[in-house]
Amino acid sequence: VEADNPYAGKTGLNAFLHVNTEEALSVAAEVDAARESGEDLPELAGVPIAVKDLIVTKGQPTTAASKMLEGWMSPYDGTVTQRLRAARMPMLGKTNLDEFAMGSTTEHSAYGVTRNPWDLTRIPGGSGGGSAAAVTAFQAPLALGTDTGGSIRQPAAVTGSVGVKPTYGSVSRYGVIAMASSLDQVGPCSRTVLDAALLHEVVGGHDPQDSTSLTDPATGFASAARAGAAEGGLKGLRVGVVKELTGEGFQAGVEQRFREAVDLLRSAGAEVVEVETPNFRYALGAYYLIMSSEVSSNLAKYDGVRFGRRTLPTDGNLTIERVMGATRAAGFGAEVKRRTILGTYALSAGYYDAYYGSAQKVRTLVQRDFNAAFEKCDVLISPTAPTTAFPIGSVDEHADPMQMYLNDVATIPTNLAGVPAISLPAGLAPEDGLPVGVQFMAPAREDARLYCAGAGLE
Ligand code: GLN
Asked: Which DSSP symbol is given to 55?
């Protein structure tokens, strides 16, 4: 397969922040030996995997792509990391991201931008651009990402790979550096839908260490993918086209490939209907308030005392507030500061109801839109991102942060509602020859439907 891929093996991507050569090779050798001695091994034993550097790993640094955690080594493994070890998957290393997962381009990493393997002058999406670029360039067959507002799916879309945001609570967040806790979810990055399903089965399932963890077992995803890919696998599947997530603001070639994907579904026997989700138009605004509020609260712990970096004020006046201020001024990048300030303001006394409270109401309305839509269909479909990969440096978000935030318009509603979604490749946009992604969305705890529909369309 690699020989057929013109993007395989491209170097200079800056997909990895840390490469875990020795340990990965020794796990691989152990698996080889076990296999030779006829030991029964888990299905993905020996399959290497890259891990987003927001997930803590014993024995490898974890930075969240921030100067705040430069050189920090976690004393423990996250649940998903423990499960990768139990599955005997060699961990290749830690992948680059926007600092603390805030962004859509990986340009906000404190350790340099990751490049899109399709065109090294373009963004790989974000925040999980490192995981998506590594998978696309055949530097890793699988990777883990995290998705708070689209950070697994939008990078998958713009790199032509597969990315899944599972149902909220379906994969443990224990040992995942929190960005916005009510939205964060870990999920697979891969080159095929079946690969994503197999990885989801490894990392998913109940974890008593995460109070929001569901009790559902993580089974049936791979079999759903195989059923969807089989002859007639999509027959009778009711697919809802989300009216609000097409048209204005979507690049012509993205729209065209999306329409073709819908036609393919129809010709495979799916029943296509149009659904209306009138409150989706408020989702982006609600997300940026809720997310920023939770960011300001979650990142308060980086105080120069408990974790990572400590920067002392140069005048020697060392009160706790001034050490905290100097540490946060030096340790956080501009985007993290912007969101922390916005969130702190939104949560402050006198504004809480007007901002955070209203945003939570919108969140409920978005959930109701999903519920109503899923009465008419099994899965929803939309483009994953409004455009293909744009050139690095082309969005001046200091002048206009909204322009960057608009990238997330199609991915955010699912995070607000906690429902699962998958992005998969839908061909190249005719005008620029770059990958386009489409996403399926399913009701909560119906992740198997994504694998069925995704593998059927793939
Ligand atoms: N692009 C979104 C943001 O900047 C998504 C982030 C994410 O999913 N981690 O908030």
From this structure: B
State the Cα–Cα distance between residues 410 and 50, nearest whole angstrom: 26
Please identify, by atom number, the ligand 1 atom nearest to the C-alpha of residue 103: 4
Q: Whole-model pTM?
A: 0.96
DSSP string for 345-411: HHHSTTTHIIIIIHHHHHHHHHHHHHHHHHHH-SEEEEESSSSSPPBTT---TTT-HHHHHGGGTTT
DSSP per position, 176-203: B--SSTTT--EEEEESSHHHHHHHHHHH
Kindly give the distance from the C-alpha atom of residue 151 to the centroid of ligand 1, in angstroms, as a whole number: 5
**DSSP bridge pairs for 381:** 241, 440
Q: Are 453 and 227 in contact (CB under 8 A)?
A: no
Is 127 an annotated catalytic residue? yes
ipTM of model:
0.98
Q: What is the DSSP string of 115-152?
A: -BTTBTTB---SSSHHHHHHHHTTS-SEEEEE-SSSTT
Tens of pLDDT, residue by residue over 276-321, are: 999 999 999 999 999 999 999 999 999 999 888 999 999 989 999 9
Picking from 144, 191, 181, 182, the residue whose alpha carbon sits closest to that of residue 165 is 144
- Domains in the chain, CATH or no CATH each: 2-229+418-457 (3.90.1300.10)
- The token pair at 224 is 């759903």
Q: 148: CA distance to ligand 1 center in Å?
A: 6
Nearest in space to 200 (alpha carbons), one of 365, 43, 22, 429: 43
Whether 235 sits among the annotated catalytic residues: the reply is: no
The tokens for 301 are 């712990």
10 as an active site residue: the answer is no
> pLDDT tens digits, residue range 401-457?
777 888 999 999 999 999 999 999 999 999 999 999 999 999 999 999 999 999 999
Q: Output the CA 127–ligand 1 centroid distance in Å.
A: 6
**Which residues are registered as beta bridge partners of 51?**
94, 144
